Every structure is written in structure tokens, then in C-alpha cells.
Amino acid sequence: MPKLQVNGIDLFYDIKGTGEPLLLIAGFLCDHAYWSLIMPSLISQYQVIRLDNRGMGRSSAPETPYSLKQMANDVAALLNHLAIDKVHLVGHSMGGQIAQELVLAHPEKVQSLMLLSSLAKGDGLFNSIIETWGELCANVDLKLYEKVVLPWIFTDSFYAIPGTIEGLIEFAIRYPFPPATHSLHHHSQAMLDFDTTDRLQKIHCPTLVLVGKQDILTPLKFSQQLAQGIPNAELVVLEGGGHGFLIESPDTVISAMLNFLRKLKPAYGS
């Protein structure tokens, strides 16, 4: 699978499907594989581009600090490399923060925007959690780290399914491209420094803000702030699923995403 040398790193990316380009940006602790459960529905209609953010998966993991603007610049460079003029842009959690920086810096590149379980600025609780996750990774093994993180990601009903959480932890332990501890620290610090609250009104592309009603990490109020700040944004609240609804309830998520994209087609003549 291809890599692009850009901004001092090797950036891993993956392209599948045909049609209008749609780019997916994963969040904290996740690489391009996080989107796997919704990929079949997307690649049947779109050219889907996924990447590993710097510090994750098969992309380089510099020791120096990262910023979300820097990661947005990585994405912009990838689009330039692929000669893609406009893209449907999707970001989950931290990926949604990167997506905001990308559309603010390069509005001409973004045809539509989908912000999943994301935020414009963290509150005290969120920042404390993220800061702890950034520090904890250097002090515990991956199994215990996952045990600490996952209760914030999935709902009690998901935990009630026998073997599900244990399977996810085992998958993380066996995954051949685990994140470096310094990368998670740098990602957490980048999220703490993020704030687009005074810039949201500058986002003018069609925007979907999607959140699970049971999300306790990036709760509904964060998505409400995004939807209220971005002109003409549409807020959709999914009854089932928490922060990890791409794994917990992928059918519901993909239905909301495709419904949003279908409504755009008359406007864009596609």
C-alpha cells in the first residue's frame, strides 16, 4: 500500500472504490482500519481515501510534538498529490478536529463535511481524560491501557455482549502496527490545544454533525456547539451507540452518512 513523503514524514494512505472522492480521518488511538466496518457500503458508491495520521499505523511517528493544523496540512498535501480538487471530508473525534482545520485552511478543497463524535473545544472533564490518556500510555502495558480507555468509548449494552470487549482488547494487542507511546502523548497534547469556537462561522460547506446519544466522551453538547456555530449545519443524534459507534452500530452510522450525501447530489449535479 502506498506512502507519500510529505512534511518530513512518510504518510500511509489507502484508496478503494470509484466515484466522487470521500476522505476519512480517524481519531485518537486509531488508524485507517477504524473505518473497516463501513467501508463496503462506501466503496460501492465513492472513491474512499483513508490515511494513517502522523504517529499512527504505518505513517511515521516523529519524536517532536504534533499539532492538528500540521496533521491537516498532511491531508492537504495528500489531496494535492492525488490531484483531487474537491473531496467529501469525514472525521471522527480527533479526526473531526483535523477536518475542521483542513476546511478552514483550504475551503476550496472540501465539497462537504461530516463531523462524527467531534468537538470545537474540550471542557475540563474532556481535557482531563485526554491528558491522562497521553500520560498513561508510558506507564502501563497496552492491555491495561485499553481497559482504561474502552469504557469511555462503548456503551453498557455493548459491554454486555459476551466476549466483545475481550475480543477488541486482544485485537489491539495483536495488531501489527501499534502506536508509539510518544505519539499518543503528542496527539493528546494537540487535542488540548485545539479550539475552533471562534472560527466555526467560517465553515460554509454543507456539514453533517453526527453523535451518539450515549456518547460520554464527546457528549451531545459538543456536537450542539458545532452545529450551532457552523452555518446551516445539520445535527443528527443517533439513539444507539456511544463514542465508538463506528464499531458498535456501523449500520446506523452509514445510513446517516449516506442519507446526508444523497441530499447533496442535486446541488452538485452528481
TrEMBL record:
Transmembrane segments: none annotated. It comes from the Bacteria. Residues 21-250 form the AB hydrolase-1 domain. GO terms for molecular function: aminopeptidase activity; triacylglycerol lipase activity. Its EC number is 3.4.11.5. GO terms for biological process: glycerolipid catabolic process. Keywords: Aminopeptidase, Hydrolase, Protease. The keyword Nucleus does not apply. It holds the Pfam family Abhydrolase_1. InterPro entries: AB_hydrolase, AB_hydrolase_1, AB_hydrolase_fold, Epox_hydrolase-like. It is an enzyme of class 3 (hydrolase). PANTHER family: AB HYDROLASE-1 DOMAIN-CONTAINING PROTEIN, HYDROLASE, ALPHA/BETA FOLD FAMILY PROTEIN. This is Alpha/beta hydrolase fold protein. It comes from Nostoc punctiforme (strain ATCC 29133 / PCC 73102). The lineage of its organism: Bacteria, Bacillati, Cyanobacteriota, Cyanophyceae, Nostocales.
